Amino acid sequence: MADQTYSFKVGMSCNGCVNAVNKALSRTEGVSKVDISLENQLVNVTASIPKDAVFEAIKKTGKPVENL
C-alpha cells in the first residue's frame, strides 16, 4: 500500500499531550511522518497502513480523537 496522509482532530491541551501522541504514532509500524499542531488540535499522519489503524494508535493514548 502506498503512503497516504490522514488527518485527525485530537484533543490535546499541552506539549505532554503532543509528545504522547507523537510517541504512540512513531512506534506504530507503517507510520512514516507525523505532523502535530497543538494550536489547531490537528494531527496529520503519513502512513502505509489503513486509517483505522492510525486512529486506533491515537485512541490508545486516551486522547479524544475524531476522523477528519
From TrEMBL:
GO terms for cellular component: cytosol. It comes from the Eukaryota. One of its GO terms (molecular function) is metal ion binding. CDD domains: HMA. Residues 3-66 form the HMA domain. The keyword rRNA processing does not apply. Keywords: Chaperone, Copper, Copper transport, Ion transport, Metal-binding, Transport. This is Heavy metal transport/detoxification protein. Belongs to the ATX1 family. PANTHER family: COPPER TRANSPORT PROTEIN ATOX1. It comes from Gonapodya prolifera (strain JEL478). GO terms for biological process: copper ion transport.
